[in-house]
Write a structure and sequence with these properties.
Blueprint lengths: L14 H4 L5 E3 L2 E11 L2 E6 L2 E10 L6 E4 L38
Antiparallel strand pairs: 1-2, 2-3, 3-4, 4-5
Function: May be a cell surface adhesion protein.
Protein name: FAS1 domain-containing protein
Membrane topology: Lipid-anchor; GPI-anchor
């Protein structure tokens, strides 16, 4: 989780300035850095193996902000080769609940 956190609160509008000081150190330390890009309001956080787009704000009140991203960041310090990650097909449906489980199809 620390690889997904920065040491300072950044509002979405501040990511433009942050993108000018790449790479950005995460709370995981100096060998776990990310690059931030800001292009016409589209914010991306890049690690060697992932290019994550910030989709929106989950929580944004200082001193903490939580942003939704569209993929997991994978640090190069841990993943020396591209990990095998399969994409979820867009038409895939969630697994059905077990029979008898709360909200499941109990008979």
């Amino acid at each position: 989780m620390m690889y997904h956190a920065l040491a300072k609160h950044y509002a979405l509008k501040e990511f433009d300035g942050l993108s000018r000081v790449n790479p950005v150190t995460t709370l995981a330390g100096g060998m776990y850095m990310v690059n931030v890009t800001y292009d016409a309001g589209a914010i991306r956080v890049l690690s060697r193996w992932a290019d994550a787009k910030i989709l929106g704000t989950v929580y944004g009140v200082a001193p903490m902000a939580v942003y939704e991203i569209d993929r997991v960041l994978l640090p190069e310090a841990i993943f020396s080769a591209r990990p095998p990650v399969e994409e979820t097909p867009p038409d895939a449906e969630p697994a059905a609940s077990a029979p008898g489980a709360k909200g499941g199809n109990a008979t």
